[in-house]
Hints:
Blueprint: H1 5-22, E1 24-29, E2 33-36, E3 40-44, E4 47-52, E5 73-76, E6 79-87, H2 90-100, E7 109-115, H3 119-124, E8 127-132, E9 135-141, E10 146-148, E11 155-162
Amino acid sequence: MSIASSLITDFNKGMNYLKDNFGQAVKVVYPSISSTCSNCSSEFANKSSHRVLSGSPVPFSNSSCVMCGGTNRIMTESFDYIHMFVHVNEDLVYKVIRKLKIGKVPKNSIITVCDIKYTSQVRKCDYIITHENNNPVKYFRFMDPMPHGLGTSHYILCVWNQEG
């Protein structure tokens, strides 16, 4: 049994309308990356020599580097913004979860829907930050993103659990 192409088109138009008109730019935060300190020099076993580099952003003298604390390593956070439709209505979220047979999902969960081209970014991220009533809220991925659509998967759906 195949789904009529007009129904698929209408579904995709509806999803695009929701995403474009009611979606938000969600901050997708990836695991921190360790990099060499740009403020001090390292001469011995990758430890800071306690000497400031010429043109460094934060000069120091006779102490540990103020940026890395003498380790010569700095943790750098990387992130993207992805436009997503965010389902925060608890009743709707649990109805969708029951229909998808995902299993038991903790309270304060949300569902996001975005374009399928963002699958790898959503899989790699540590967490997302959405805005609810102008307040940032952090959510951790509860499950891997799954394709979402009628016959064609133009979107991914993902369940997230609020921190705490």
